From TrEMBL:
Keyword vocabulary terms for this entry: Glutamine amidotransferase, Transferase
Transmembrane segments: none
GO molecular function, one term: gamma-glutamyl-gamma-aminobutyrate hydrolase activity
GO (cellular component) term, any one: cytosol
Alphabetical list of Pfam families matching this protein: Peptidase_C26 (PF07722)
SUPFAM superfamilies listed in its UniProt record: Class I glutamine amidotransferase-like (SSF52317)
Keyword Cell inner membrane in annotation: no
The protein's name: Putative glutamine amidotransferase
Protein's GO biological process: polyamine catabolic process
Region (Disordered): 225-245
Length: 245
């Protein structure tokens, strides 16, 4: 059985170990979590946003990962906060185009940290440019909405999650439902009830702990299963099925 192909937009990096020049990268923990779930991670060159539909036609699902800040002009902000960092217009244009296509076409999509913020902006929502205190290098509890997709996927009404972000959701975009919050009220997960395809967005980084936390790994398993046309609510990792190495 062929592994579903999961597109992961690459992130630009000024340098990377063992490479002489600038690089395009994806977090190892992220692609390993997709692989454990039975998917084939496809790290995608973030260029030519006008043709993402054709380029994604060969893919079965999308994972929008974390990264630097989205330029505030994309959500109508008149000023840029001094803490906004690592803005890249090429990266922004590509991620926004991928998110629009994935949501419009119903392509199964998991959005993580910046990825969730990109989806929220595509849906017409806004972001908090900076939080005080921020959630960088923080592990904290989130409370999950009973009966939500996140609840059904992880099997947990609350979870300890690994966060690294200084921005957050301000106004949810059209159709997006908040399904998890931190104790300080920060939006930690969003879903699209009634959407054409499977979608889950989390503000934390489930890949940080997925290797040791089955609830976090099940988020990736569900993306892969939805991308394969199966029941994303089935908790078995797709790698456990016959024929998937």
């Amino acid at each position: 059985m062929t592994r579903p192909l999961i597109a992961v937009p690459a992130r630009f990096s000024a340098r990377a170990s063992a490479l002489r020049y600038a690089a395009e990268v994806a977090a190892r923990a992220l692609v390993e979590a997709v692989w454990r779930g039975g998917g084939e991670p496809f790290v995608m060159h973030p260029a030519d946003p006008g043709h993402v539909a054709g380029r994604l036609a060969r893919c079965d699902g999308v994972l929008l990962p974390g990264g630097g800040d989205l330029h505030p002009r994309h959500y109508g902000a008149a000023e840029v906060h001094e803490t906004v960092y690592d803005v890249d217009e090429e990266q922004d244009a590509f991620d926004l185009a991928v998110a629009r296509h994935a949501l419009d076409s119903g392509l199964p999509t998991l959005a993580i940290c910046r990825g969730l913020q990109v989806v929220n902006v595509v849906a017409g929502g806004t972001l908090r440019q900076h939080m005080e205190p921020d959630h960088r290098h923080v592990v904290h509890r989130v409370d999950v909405e009973p009966g939500s997709l996140l609840h059904r996927t992880t099997g947990a009404a609350e979870a300890a999650v690994s966060c690294y972000h200084h921005q957050g959701i301000a106004t949810p975009g059209a159709g997006l439902a908040v399904t998890a919050r931190a104790a300080d009220g920060t939006v930690e997960a969003m879903e699209l009830p009634g959407a054409a395809g499977w979608f889950l967005g989390v503000q934390w980084h489930p890949e940080d702990t997925a290797a040791d936390d089955p609830a976090q790994q099940r988020i990736f398993d569900a993306l892969v299963r939805a991308s394969a046309g199966g029941d994303p609510g089935d908790a078995r990792p797709r790698s456990a099925e016959a024929g998937v190495p």
